[in-house]
Design a protein that fits this description.
It is a single chain. With 177 residues, this protein is mostly helical. Helix 4 (60-75) runs parallel beside helix 8 (140-147), helix 7 packs across helix 9 (151-173) and helix 8 (140-147) crosses helix 9 (151-173). It contains 9 helices and no strands. It starts with a helix and ends with a helix. The model is unreliable at 78-88 (pLDDT under 50). The chain has helices at residues 2-15, 19-30, 33-49, 60-75, 91-95, 102-121, 124-135, 140-147, 151-173.
């Protein structure tokens, strides 16, 4: 019995700090709050059941993100699902700008809206790899493991995603890109 308690404690210690990151990524995949919550819950459940197969000392974040992605691909409509995300639906984003001047708030919201719109326009493969790399700060080799593609494919997709994003944002944000 102590080994089960110890295993659960170790799992919690590794998994709980990743909850917000997993939820954010799940939300980008599903485009729906309740589906994202369900996906994260299912991911945690599967990861806990499979925790005996995880090798301590290896990259837990990459391991659990792969479970999240595979769960999404096998039990949902897939990455091709696309819905618009409105900033008004995310009051936490609006709260962070409450202390700014109205002009600062307008510029910040306009830039965030432009970024969200540009991300929405990326091909799902490019959006996913960009979010894993630049938002979740996962290393290329771990992204390759999560996506089950060669590291060269990861690097190519990141490059194309950044280039496409830059092109999409250039008219909105000017020549400084």
């Amino acid at each position: 019995m102590p080994s089960t308690i110890s295993r659960s404690a170790t799992f919690e210690e590794l998994a709980l700090p990743l909850f917000a990151s997993l939820y954010n990524h799940a939300f980008w995949l599903t485009r729906n709050q309740s589906e994202a919550e369900d996906l994260v819950q299912e991911t945690f459940s599967k990861a806990l059941r499979a925790f005996d197969s995880f090798q301590l000392g290896t990259n837990f974040k990459a391991w659990i993100f792969r479970i999240l992605r595979n769960t999404f691909l096998t039990s949902r409509t897939g990455i091709a699902t696309s819905r618009t995300v409105f900033l008004e639906d995310h009051p936490d984003t609006l709260d962070t700008v409450a202390s700014s001047t109205p002009e600062d708030t307008l510029i910040r919201l306009d830039n965030q809206a432009a970024l969200h719109l540009a991300l929405e326009q990326l091909q799902p493969q490019l959006r996913e790899v960009l979010l894993l790399c630049d938002v979740e700060e996962i290393k290329y080799k771990d992204i390759a493991a999560i996506l089950d593609v060669p590291i060269g494919t990861v690097m190519s997709r990141i490059s194309r995603a950044r280039s496409t994003l830059r092109q999409l944002l250039q008219p909105q944000l000017g020549e400084s890109l």
